[in-house]
Amino acid sequence: MQQALQNMKVIDLTQVLAGPYCTMVLGDLGADVIKVEKYPHGDDSRIMGPYVEEESYSYMMANRNKRGIRLNIKEEAGLGILLDLVKTADVFIENFRPGVTKKLGIDYETLRQLNPGLIYCSISGYGQTGPYSQKGGYDIMAQGLSGLMSMTGEKNGRPVKNGIAIHDIAAGMTAIYSILAAYIHKLSTGEGQYIDLSLVDSGLAWTVWESAAYFGAGEVSRANGSAHRVTAPYQGFPTKNGHILVGAGNQKLWEKFCRDVIEREELIHDPRFLTNSERQANLEELEQVIQDVLIQEDSQHWLTKLDEAGVPSSPIYSYDEALNDPHIRSRDMVIEYDHPLGGRIESLGFPAKMSKTPGQVKRPAPLLGQHTKEVLAELQYSEEKIRALEENKII
After folding, report:
1. What positions carry a catalytic annotation?
2. Which residue among 12, 176, 232, 339 sits deepest, i.e. has the most Cβ atoms within 10 Å of its Cβ?
């Protein structure tokens, strides 16, 4: 089956999550991704559990659809191999701390001399410029600097880290669409370009409503539990046996909720709750009124009534419940494929369902150095030269 990026070749020098997530998606869409892992131990995520037959499941999750080589680029011969690969590539992506690629001789200005059409993407914690550019930056530091942690958690509580590595994934997503835009430009002009993006910038760009509140009214968004900052009731509530989400996000839905779900029609005319503005201004009282009703029955009772009334709702799942929900499964968001050591493994599926060029799993995450000899043979390296490189611990 045809894939959209089947003619794109990517050299991937990233590790852990942001960069690997980007190149995994490019690979899912058909790109030939060659993952270059450092010699001798490879991607740092290889030491993250859990393990299946001594292979990291964390590594496997973010590195499918790639060919893997293990290469010592600190040695001249190893650097030479990487430069030979660059000559054949459309995209080069790295996540070293700013300045390291210059020391290694693989910075953009150097590589563009070999390949003027190269799209070169750098992912770092804080970006290549600015007063913090030389600082090391992980996802949690980006969550702190972007203000995200101050807006996450319960009201008046301690700052809370988001449950997922949200800035890492934001950076990966930003890299994907930036690379695709640069690739479209290259297809029409032949020109490559440099892409500088950071974990901080990528996650900050997602704070749309929060920045609107600040720029428009000088309001500083704070942690508010599951409640929405401008709409009510739009949040989680306890029930007799758990918690559910209620999304009565406009006046019509609010009135349906009162009349058909909790059967408290008088609340529609209560001056405290007449409009969304009043409901937001009196949120604590509103929460208490709704909670006093919902706590009387179990979650499924209310979810059924909410569905019947056409009011958006959802259970609040644990992660195992989410992955085993029949809707999630029916959408193929959990898939299976074979791994040479792990056997039949499960992974996340493709969120976009494309009718002509769908995502596919063509290969599992590579074993460390699995495709080194194959890739070198494609570069016309002789068997004798490959053996010598192996003996000298270059590959």
Report:
1. 168
2. 12
